[in-house]
Structure formats: structure tokens, C-alpha cells
Specification:
Elements (H helix, E strand, L loop, with lengths): L6 H17 L2 H8 L5 H9 L18 H13 L6 H15 L4 H9 L4 E4 L1 H4 L6 E5 L2 E10 L5 E5 L5 E5 L5 E5 L9 E15 L2 H36 L1 E2 L2 E2 L4 H30 L1 H30 L10 H13 L4 H11 L5
Parallel strand pairs: 1-4
Antiparallel strand pairs: 2-3, 3-7, 4-5, 5-7, 6-7, 8-9
Length: about 350
């Protein structure tokens, strides 16, 4: 049995890579980090069909699979590209479709890339500080920390009971505060709700879990892409940088560092692909696989980020190289939607290893 990408998936990968290389280069990422909008990047990706990947054809989408979405996520991580892909193209459509409700109009807007849905799942995974959400009679109060997408048109919010609600960003009772985090390639916000109108999407825990699982796999794929680029940058730099009139790539210690990065990362690609495949085709294995994949890629990505920076020496810490954008993106992915320790515990509970 050969498990690999189809010709259509390779074509999708090539098209997304080509677009990102032209429109989301390091210079574009620097401008975004300094305050420029990501609207043009997202509009271009939407024209390629990225926003419509997981949305059924009857709602203007393409009706592709989580594996196709993982391929795109890897490309985005490779370029540390900004944009609302995780929420608008992946988690929000998954929740709306899994809920079984009539969300055709919103799905159509998501598919066209004209509506952005942010994700506020933090309070359902692990509450922090005084944050928390209360919903009564369709009215929401409380706080969500580290919500995705600072300029979303609406937010998919999960409460402590893992119920899902949709709130409009234009509601006068909703306050958004942009949070300062290490990752400058994507913005997160603190959402404060004061008598905000909330539309219940689902009260089923299974819908929340399905949405969370695909989000975790996409973050793992994003880390895979970012780590691969850091590895590639380290190898290229080692071939060019000379010490004692020799490229440092000829030194055994540097060779070992690069070889260890490659050896640890290559199996991760199959792991991510299988996790994405399991979401659609192996439901009994999907949750545990998503947890293990998210945790493992977090650890491997962290190690590669550290080693790649070491190969670059002092240059690795300068903005001239820009390696810190990849380094910090991997670090943010590690924490979002559950740190490795948390998701490993979830997997252990699922497998009956702990109470």
C-alpha cells in the first residue's frame, strides 16, 4: 500500500506554494508584523479556493477533505503566512456542518472569503485567570482569552460546557483587545462580552470535539511546514557560511545537527497526513491520533527551531535573517488549542490509561 498525495493534491500544494512565495514573502510578513492588513493575502488564497476547501459544493464550496486542508496548512506554516485559515476555512465550517443546522448563507460567505470567523475555544480547553463565559437566554457575558483573528466579522465561541455559540464582532457589547504575544505572524485577542447576542450552534460535546480535533491537526501541519523551512534555511546557511576557509556544512558537528533535524522531522509528515486522513475516514482513531500528532509535532518543532537557530549562530537572532518569525510561530502553535502535556493527558484518558 502506498500512502501519498494524489496528483490533484500535489497540484493544490504547488499552486498554494507559488502564490505564497509571490504574495507572502518574508517582506510581506514583516509588514504584517508592523501593522499591515492580511486582507490581500486572504483574498488571493480565497480566489485559489482555499477558503472553500471543506465547504460542500451546494454552499459554494469545493467539498475536499481534511488531508487537503492539512496540505494547505503546511504551506502556510512554511511561509509563516498570516491569515484566518484556521478559523474561517477549517474550524468554523467544520462546526457549522457538524451541527446539522441551517447555516447555508454563512457557509457561502465563508467559501467566498467575504466573511471571517474567529475562534474562541480557550475557556473550553483550560480556563485562565478570571476568564469564563456565561450564557443565559441567548445573551453572553464573560471573557475569552487568546481568541484567533483580531479582525474577524464574527466569532465561534466555546463555553466551559463545550457548547458552541456564534457572536457578531459588531455587537456593541463585544470588546476586542489585541494581545501582545511572541508570534507576530498572527494576532490573537481578548474578547469581553457584556450582554452580547449569542446564537447557539450546538450543545453537543461531539461537535466541539470534532472541531477541536481538526484545529489541532491543522496546527500540527502548520508546525510541520514551519519546521521544514527552518531546517531548509539551516542547511542553506551551513553551505554558505565559512569558518577556517571551509563551509561549516563540512564540519561533522553541523552535519549531525542537520541530520538529526531531518531524521526527526521526516516521519512527522506521514503522521500529520494520517491524522488528517483519520478525521474523515477513521472516526474511532481520530481523536487520539489528533492529540498525539499535536503533541509530537509541538515537541519536534520546538527542537528543530532551537537547533536551526544554533546552526545560524549569531545570525539566527537577527531580523535580517528573520528566523525568529518561524521560531515564534512554532512556539505559539505549541500552546494554542492545548499544550503537549494537556493533549497527551486527553489521549491517555481516551485510551483508558488514566482515570
Amino acid at each position: 500500500m502506498q500512502f501519498g498525495l494524489s496528483e490533484e493534491q500535489i497540484l493544490l500544494q504547488d499552486n498554494v506554494k507559488r502564490f505564497l512565495n509571490d504574495n507572502a514573502s518574508l517582506d510581506h510578513v514583516r509588514k504584517y508584523a508592523e501593522g499591515e492588513s492580511d486582507a490581500n493575502i486572504w483574498a488571493g488564497l480565497s480566489e485559489l479556493g482555499v477558503a472553500a476547501l471543506l465547504i460542500p459544493e451546494e454552499h459554494g464550496g469545493i467539498g475536499m477533505t481534511p488531508l487537503d486542508a492539512a496540505i494547505v496548512a503546511e504551506c502556510l506554516g512554511n511561509n509563516v503566512a498570516p491569515g484566518p485559515f484556521l478559523g474561517s476555512a477549517v474550524m468554523a465550517p467544520t462546526a457549522l456542518i457538524a451541527s446539522g443546522g441551517d447555516h447555508g448563507e454563512l457557509l457561502g460567505e465563508l467559501a467566498a472569503g467575504t466573511h471571517r470567523v474567529g475562534i474562541a475555544f480557550g475557556e473550553a480547553i483550560k480556563r485562565r485567570n478570571d476568564a469564563g463565559i456565561q450564557v443565559s437566554n441567548g445573551v453572553m457575558n464573560g471573557t475569552s482569552l487568546f481568541a484567533f483573528d483580531a479582525v474577524a466579522d464574527s466569532y465561534l465561541v466555546a463555553d466551559q460546557n463545550k457548547h458552541l455559540y456564534l457572536v457578531s464582532a459588531s455587537d456593541t457589547g463585544l470588546t476586542r483587545t489585541v494581545l501582545t504575544t511572541v508570534d507576530k505572524t498572527r494576532q490573537t485577542v481578548e474578547l469581553t462580552y457584556k450582554d452580547v447576542a449569542a446564537t447557539c450552534i450546538s450543545t453537543q460535546v461531539s461537535v466541539f470535539e470534532t472541531t477541536l480535533d481538526i484545529g489541532r491537526v491543522m496546527l500540527a501541519a502548520d508546525t510541520l511546514g514551519a519546521a521544514q523551512d527552518m531546517l531548509d534555511q539551516a542547511v542553506d546557511y551551513a553551505k554558505q557560511r565559512e569558518q577556517f576557509n571551509r563551509p561549516i556544512a563540512s564540519f561533522q558537528a553541523v552535519k549531525h545537527m542537520c541530520a538529526e533535524m531531518a531524521a526527526s522531522l521526516e516521519p512527522c509528515r506521514s503522521m500529520v497526513w494520517f491524522a488528517a486522513h483519520a478525521l474523515a475516514d477513521l472516526p474511532d482513531e481520530a481523536r487520539a491520533t489528533a492529540c498525539h500528532t499535536k503533541a509530537h509535532l509541538s515537541e519536534v518543532g520546538k527542537a528543530i527551531a532551537k537547533t536551526s537557530t544554533e546552526v545560524h549562530g549569531g545570525m539566527g537572532f537577527t531580523d535580517l535573517v528573520g528566523l525568529h518569525y518561524w521560531f515564534k510561530r512554532i512556539g505559539a502553535n505549541r500552546q494554542w488549542l492545548g499544550a503537549p502535556e494537556h493533549v497527551r493527558h486527553e489521549a491517555a484518558v481516551l485510551q483508558g490509561l488514566v482515570a
